[in-house]
Amino acid sequence: MKVHLLGAHNRARYGDLLEANYKLRHRIFVDLQGWEAIRRPDGRDVDAFDGPDATHILVTDGDELVGGSRFNCHDGPTLLQAVFPGLVTEPLPAPPALGADWTRFYVRPDRREGRRRAPESAALFCAMMEYALSRGYAFITFVSTIYMVELGVSMGMRIVPLGAPANIDGKPTLAAWIEVSETALANIRRATGMSQMLLPVIDLDTRAPHIAVAGLY
């Protein structure tokens, strides 16, 4: 497997991979999970938070896209602020510029079947924390089912709810924040067995502008 970091500094080189990401997201979140509100006739899950300031972490196996997620910095528009403000009743733990919103986490369904914890999911969790540390973030927010919160805590992350759960699409769902720290990364690596650094160093060293299974919005 290979992990790719796509941002404003290198997006032009990854046009085909980004398109594959939009189409796979549509298949997973709309066709399989039934998020009819985001259905599009072109079969692409693209919204206002996929703009030039978004950062995508995508996982490939050979030529095949097998997983991904997205980040938007809180000093710009985020899905949490625009779509789920009712889930937030507590303040963010630090100034908005020190955090990002983590959304559209997915692993291709056939890569999850029959496995307790897919290595693609493990890679995405590790890469999430590596990316957050590289950008100097103090926290990452997300909206998800309670199951995902429990999974994150079981991997050694400090996760704090931003409000009480609400029933969304028939599932108890809440907004929360994850503390970004070297300790959290070490805990995730220990829990997942991903001991090596996953994100390409050349991308982590590029200080380009950046404004940031299933069940993470």
Description of the molecule:
By secondary structure, the protein is of the alpha+beta class. It has one domain (2-215): Gcn5-related N-acetyltransferase (GNAT) (Aminopeptidase, 3-Layer(aba) Sandwich). The chain is built from six helices and eight strands. The chain has helices at 15-32, 79-83, 119-134, 146-154, 182-192, 201-204; strands spanning 2-6, 55-61, 64-73, 99-107, 139-145, 159-161, 166-168, 171-179. Strands 1, 2, 3, 4, 5, 6, 7 and 8 form an eight-stranded mixed sheet that branches. Strand 2 (55-61) and strand 3 (64-73) form a beta hairpin. It is globular and about 40 Å long. The two termini are 24 Å apart. Its EC number is 2.3.1.184. GO terms for molecular function: N-acyl homoserine lactone synthase activity. It is an enzyme of class 2 (transferase). It comes from Devosia geojensis. Keywords: Autoinducer synthesis, Quorum sensing, S-adenosyl-L-methionine, Transferase.
